[in-house]
Every structure is written in structure tokens, then in C-alpha cells.
Amino acid sequence: MLTKRIIPCLDIKDGRTVKGVNFLDLRDAGDPVELGKRYAEEGADELVFLDITATHEKRKTLIELVSRIALNLNIPFTVGGGISSVEDVSALLNAGADKISVNSAAVKRPELVSDIASRFGSQCVVVAVDAKNINGVWKVFLNGGRIETELHLEDWVKQLEKLGAGEILFTSMNHDGTKNGFACEELARISDMISIPVIASGGAGKPEHFLEAFTKGKADAALAASVFHFKEIEIKDLKSYLAQQQIPVRL
Prior knowledge:
8-stranded parallel beta barrel; 10 helices; 12 strands; 37% helix; globular
């Protein structure tokens, strides 16, 4: 059985790591290079860096940051934020990223997923999907959760698999930052629909939530931010707990 992955996520704004609740009220959480290095040493399986204020003008700054991160890491890392072309992907991979994450750009131009997959391979394409349960229907949102689309989550993830996505990073906006647990029912539903890995995001508050994401939610990986940034959960302790619960993890 494949090992389940624990992935800290660093949301980056103006070169600093930040964290909010339900995508709002951001507060500083530290230097992304230092945090990334710490997580690698503590046993994280991968890292995700998302530039939440990415613009074309800041692309050079992000590439420089990725280069600095790559020098300090020995585990795979994914970079996202403002990626809208094959050229953007090429620049980030050349700077040292292992995978890239696209979100809004994939909704606006789905063929971008196919273009990246055919050029660099599906294994480096992570499509981030921010969705919210509105009256029992999971709708996809764009621009950091600010713009509602007509897309239904389940239809979208099935389409993404066909387009060549290598992984889906599903964030439940209802659960994000609440520390009340992941959206396990919906996680399980989309995990059963597609054969590519699904990363659970949004709602981690205690070790039991990760266990639920892997058992009830059938997730392949679980991602969290503030519980790791502020040392509410230590990655080594989390993995020991999961191993005791018969979840295959890399210790």
C-alpha cells in the first residue's frame, strides 16, 4: 500500500508566510525558507508553497524565492499562485520546484492543464480546487475563494483527470482554518470518482482529523498550515500516531 503523505502548506504574501480563517484575516507566520527547512527536518513528505498575491509583475520575486527554497530542501515541493502559461511553469521548474499548482487559470482555460501535462508530464501538475458547499451543492470558487463559478466540484475533478492532471488538491472553504476536521464525506466521494491522488485540505485541528481524512475521506495526502506553523501539531508526533492507527506513513 502506498504511504500516506503529510504536507505542510505555506501561503506566501509579499515574501512572508501568512495564515487566515475561511480565506480571510491573514496573520504573519514566518519566513517561508526557514519554515520549509524546518518541515523537511521534521519529517514532512512534501511541501506546498502558494503565492496568494501573485501577479505577473511579482513573478521574478517568486522565482527568486523558489530558488532559495530549493537550496534548503531535500523533499519535493509544489509551487502555485498566478501560474497561467507553460512559460511560467518552465521558469518555476527551472528554479527548483518539483511540481506546480494551478487553480483559477485552469478554470478559465482548461487546456492549460493538458498543455502543462504534455510538456512536463502529469506527475508535476497539481490542480488546486477551492470549493464550498452551498445548500448541498459543492461549487468551485476562484481567486482565493472570492469568485463563485457555475462549476460543480465533482464534474470539475472528473474533467481535470481527463485533461491530464496528476493530483487534485481539494480545499473545502467551509472547513478552511476552522480546525474542526476535513470534509471527509466529499473527499471520499471524489476519491472514488477518480484514479489520481486527492490531497485533503481545509480543517485540520488535531491528529484524529488526519486519521479521518485517510480512512473516512480516502485521501492520499493531507495538507495543513496553521497547526504546523504554530506547533499545535508536531509532524513527528502526528506520524507516530498515524502509524499506531495502522496508517502507512514514512517515519
